[in-house]
Amino acid sequence: MRHFSEVYAALRRQNRRQYALLTGCCFFSVLLITAYVCMMRSPTILNVLPEGGDSRKQVMMIFVLAVLGCGVFTTYASGLFFRQKSRETGIFLALGATRRQLWARQSRELAAISLGSCALGAALGGPLAWLLWQVFRMCVVDTEEMRLTFNPAAYSLSLAFSLFVVLMLFYMGVRSIRRTNIIDVVQESHKSEPIRAVPRWYGLAGIGLLIFGGLLGYLMPSFFVRTLHWYPPDWLPSVFYLPALVGLYYILLHTVVNGWGGKKRLYKDLISTSMMKFQGRQTVRNMLVMTLLIAGAYFGSFYTPMLGTGAMIGYDARPIDYVYRFRADQDIPQEDEVRELAEKYGVTITSYAQAPMLRLAVDGTMSVEEKGTLGTTWHPEYRETLCSELFLSASGYTALTGEPVDLQSGEIMGVMDSDGGARYLFNPDVSLVTNYVTGQRFGVTAMGELENNSLPQRFVVSDGDFAAMSEGLPAAWQEVQVCFNVENVEETYDFAKALFYEIVDRSGPEAALLDVWDPVVRDYDLLHKGYYAYDPENSAETGVEVIDYAQRDSSLFRLYWQYMPQFRALDKADFVKTTAVFLILFIFIAIVCFAAVIVIAYTRCMTIALTHRQVYDDLRRLGAPQWYLYQSVRGQVKRVFLTPAVVGTTLIYAFYMLIMYFNGDPPGITATEAAGLLASLGVIAAVSVLLYGVYRVTLRAVCRSLDVRNVKSGA
Amino acid sequence: MLTVENLHKSYQVGKTSYEALKGVSLGVDRGEFVAVMGPSGSGKTTLLNCISCYIPAGSGSIRLDGTELARLDEESLAKVRNQKLGFVFQDFLLMDGLTVRQNILLPAIIGGVISAETEKRADELCSVFGIAKIREKYPAEISGGEKQRTAVARALINRPLLILADEPTGNLDSKSSRAVIAAFEQAKAELEATIFMVTHDSFAASFCDRVIILRDGVVWQALERGDTERQAFQDQLLDAIREMGRE
User: Fold this and answer.
1) ipTM of the assembly?
2) CA A591 – CA A406 distance, rounded (Å)
3) Closest chain A residue by Cα to residue B92
4) How many CB atoms sit inside 10 A of residue B55's CB?
């Protein structure tokens, strides 16, 4: 051995586990982030997730969490690496090596580690995302729109994260060599990181702050909008969650430093608590990241059971098997053709009804936004023709539903679904109805609500008023509502699909509209803004998707076509297909986040073995029996896994309940939401079993590394 | 060869400034074996760290072979550490991933001057200090005394002007301590090494030509061994320490 490079090579061989750990952590972080980014920016996903919608925001929010988690994790791994390496750096400096000399060698190593791991992670991230997606397509659901395509521009985010990893590693490397005090460097590996005394009230205060911050963060945006009539900037609501973050930190700090066992367990947990305490900052930081990632992962995981349960209950709650409507100027199958088609498919129609409907303008109050020095504010403004709604006559409603309605002239009732979900889109409390074509106006008195899950968001007026209101209204403003029931509805999927295709095939281009398209709002916008965002011809300019009859099986079409029929058999059977991209995307996100959690927890636990070998040797010399050593190892590993899992799970479940509670008007949890929450508990149970399995494997690996045997009894 | 004049060094502990050295002056001649003793907190390790340039001195002067160390830039200081100083630490500070022979060669490798002659010298040092048989072993495979003798050999590989030893027997049993002190004596006798050793061990110090006793950051007393027998010199040292305790 004659050259410095050979010395470094020999030391690398000696410390290969540390090198492997750092390389693995960098590789894994970049791999996960790249896979996530590829998926998040994939045209396949972006085509389905509405622009500016909640789903996109959730995906982005969890992405930020994942980046934060992987960033902190790689920083931790590199800190650990340089901490271990500091001894040899110190010896080199003490023996007369110059910093420049050391940096020349170290920078080459860091370049190889960082560039190699990042390049490999970035290169394999895309294929990993693709592979997972294909597994979903093979095992869960496969539709035309699930053909995964990647946007090469997505790699810019992966590149940015890789750049962070490279720069962070080089920064840490420079910092480790730049220490001026060689003595400190030499003694670095013997130094612990004590955290200041943590009062016991931190635990309870943490829980209090967590609840307070959660409520504050969730409710403040509504307060701003509803009470102050002000739309806060996007970043502001996050500020109100800060107390929750501080509370979470307090809880973890208390858990690591004091523990929750009280004085009884003080001596039993003395070793494990002390070991964690003296690596407190690192431990708490890791746990915080894991907690947030677990919360993010569950947030993604809950999407499927919540959506699935809600949808299935919703389909079952419909009192009518087949419901569809169409514009009166369209040539859509009616009773004779429907019966003929049913016969062809061996379906028995047990009841059939259809009734005319009118599209009329209603009055109401809307929020008018204004941009000012304080940002966007709004004020309520009453409009006599706010938007259009669909109107049934009392006899028509009775014919369709079998429920008698007694209304006098001038009286009106709105139809609402049983859990009030339609209330956000539909205000049954109107006082003026206008025939938008003739301009004739009708003063009305709201007489309350009717409840029907198949025909929500419609108004019912007396037969006389209906006739008067329809006068002069052209066919384009009139519709036909069809409702029928069949025998053995669950077995009528082929018929349902054939009828649906028939309806689509016979619909004209004038009916190729999104569900939000409204002719009254359109007129207002054309007059005041000069364009209407939901007109298909403006799609290129506004980026709003258009309805394409050729894509009748796509999510976009099934979820957003204005005249999409509600066929229980079709909706139930095609639910997974219709929402496949959403479901799979969120399952994918959950997998990525849980994978990150598992790798962080495993790495953190393995460092117990790497850094505390001497302590365990000393304990053996002091006569500690195997069961004591085992308990001490288990105490630490358990805390690394259990604390973030319990806190993260409780946190996100409580937050989800909060969302569900305040989601409705009036606040409360509906039966659908309760069922979704119950299904989410099932997900928690399954994931907990998985995490427990990883915990057991990790515990075994740490024990094996420290030569500690699993001896349970201390008696 | 080494001259320390009016050396001051303070540490900041929280808001309190703690003065570890309060004007220490001393000199070490070529070929001399000097020990620094003193109770905990007397400033002996601080003094050694300042001479080693591991920590910057507060004020005063440290001259090595006529060169004022405080005036040297970082690169030059590294060169001084590598070429003119040799180090022996209490906990050896050997590289676990290198063999005994490779550890001994390390300062030469760092200095970039490695030749067949250097390797021959490393082998000679192994023979001198009785570690030739273990030269291909790793530190984890040898005893504490062997580790420290390896460290002494490493300190001598670049033929330094001065060996600085910080509690070299602190982690060793009496037999190993004896072997290490013997190694120093051998280095002095056969290799004309100059040794400056910090120790709290009167037995180890009793082998030195001169012992400087520090107390509260100043030189309290300096004892010359001269022709005195080792045992008698150790008794003198112990008496001096007892006297210091009485004051």
Assistant:
1) 0.92
2) 55
3) A91
4) 19
Q: Nearest CA to CA, how far is A81 from chain B (Å)? A: 16
Do B196 and B34 contact (CB within 8 A), yes or no? Answer: yes
Contacts of B82 in chain A (CB under 8 A): 95-97
Helix, strand or coil, per DSSP, at residue A412: strand
Contact A99 B74 (CB under 8 A): yes
Q: A95, B81: Cβ pair inside 8 Å?
A: yes
Only one residue has tokens 């040092």, namely B125
Instruction: Specify the residue for token string 């693995």.
Output: A24
Q: At what angle do helices B74-83 and B100-111 cross, to 10 degrees?
A: 140
A13 contacts in chain B (CB < 8 Å): 97
In 3D space, the residue among A647, A626, A614 whose CA is nearest the CA of residue A711 turns out to be A626
Q: In which domain, by residue range, is B240 found?
A: 2-246
Give the other-Cβ count within 10 Å of A139's Cβ.
8
CA angle A322, A324, A325 (to 5 degrees): 160
- Candidates A38, A57, A33, A36; CA nearest to A588 is A36
**pTM, to two decimals:** 0.76
What are the C-alpha distances in Å from A346 to residues A494, A498, A569? 10, 13, 15
Q: How far apart are the first and last CA of chain B?
A: 33
> What is the average pLDDT across B83-102?
90
Closest residue on chain B to A12 (Cα): B97
Which residues in chain A come in under a pLDDT of 50?
Answer: 188-190, 195, 714-715
Cβ–Cβ pairs < 8 A, chains A and B: 80
Q: Which residues have a Cβ under 8 Å from the Cβ of A361 and sit 6 or more positions away?
A: A384, A385, A386, A387, A388, A433, A434, A435, A436, A520
pLDDT tens digits, residue range A303-324?
A: 888 888 888 888 888 999 999 9
Q: Residue B109 is nearest to which of A4, A88, A99, comparing CB atoms?
A: A4
Task: Domain count for chain B, please give it.
Answer: 1
In which element (H, E) is residue A425 found?
A: none
